[in-house]
Amino acid sequence: MQVVTVTADAETFTCNAYLVLGERTVLVDAGAMDGVVDVIREHTDTLDAVVLTHQHGDHVEQLDAVLDEFDAELAAYAPHPRRDTPLSDGDTVRIGDEEFEAVHTPGHADDHLAFVSDSTIFSGDVVVHDDGAFDDGSFGRTDMPGQSREELIESIRDLLDRMPDSVEHMYAGHGDEFHGDGPGGHSPGSQSERQDSSGDVRDVIETALERAEKREPKYPE
């Protein structure tokens, strides 16, 4: 399964949008970078689906452009005028060559989903490897209206409970991708920046949980 960060060269604020090539070619989030469609075209002529972690602007600004260009289905938790497939907690969705479980992970966004397979997690913004606030395990911001640190903490705990120990590849909505030191941990096939280090994905998420549980502001004034 090859994963390409199609927003890697963005000069404006965007999420990481991931093109997953394989048996079912899927874009995980659409991002906010002008030219996303052109980057996708460099790698594939067809796109089977767009799957959303959540619908914050930096994740969906280019969604209409992508859907207008490709005859792709849209799968998301929350309603959207162009949604074809509603996703609920526990649903499975094929991304690339693997089956992923959709895990509802609110706190940063009410409609947030993470996608987990036996080898890989697309964690969106619920938990990331690095984001300028923390390295080696950070969590989504919860200081905006409608967000909740308590919900986020419960979401991270649930994610840890449901994530197989075999997960070694982590693709988050912001920051670098991370590849752990377990079996296959150093062969992601991605063109984006990456972090390879001792430890594994579970270590990163447990560190993020510990930091979130302190209830301290993520971005102190």
Number of strands: 15
CATH topology: Metallo-beta-lactamase, Chain A
List the helices and strands in order: EEEHEHHEEEEEEEEHEEEH
Task: Indicate the overall shape.
Answer: globular
Average of the residue pLDDT scores: 93
| Alpha carbon gap, first and last residue | 42 Å
Characterize this entry briefly.
The chain has 221 residues and is an alpha/beta fold.
Description:
The longest helix is centred in the C-terminal third of the chain and has 14 residues, at 149-162. The protein is globular, with a radius of gyration of 16 Å. A hairpin with a 4-residue loop joins strand 2 and strand 3 (26-28). It has helices at 36-43, 57-60, 63-69, 149-162, 201-213; strands spanning 2-5, 18-21, 26-28, 49-51, 73-76, 85-86, 92-95, 98-104, 113-116, 120-124, 127-128, 138-139, 169-172, 177-179, 194-196. It has one domain (2-213): Metallo-beta-lactamase, Chain A. By secondary structure, it is of the alpha/beta class. Helix 4 runs antiparallel to helix 5.
Structural topology:
Elements: E1 2-5, E2 18-21, E3 26-28, H1 36-43, E4 49-51, H2 57-60, H3 63-69, E5 73-76, E6 85-86, E7 92-95, E8 98-104, E9 113-116, E10 120-124, E11 127-128, E12 138-139, H4 149-162, E13 169-172, E14 177-179, E15 194-196, H5 201-213
Helix pairs in contact: 4-5
Which descriptors apply to this entry?
221 residues, alpha/beta, Metallo-beta-lactamase, Chain A, 7-stranded mixed beta sheet, 6-stranded mixed beta sheet
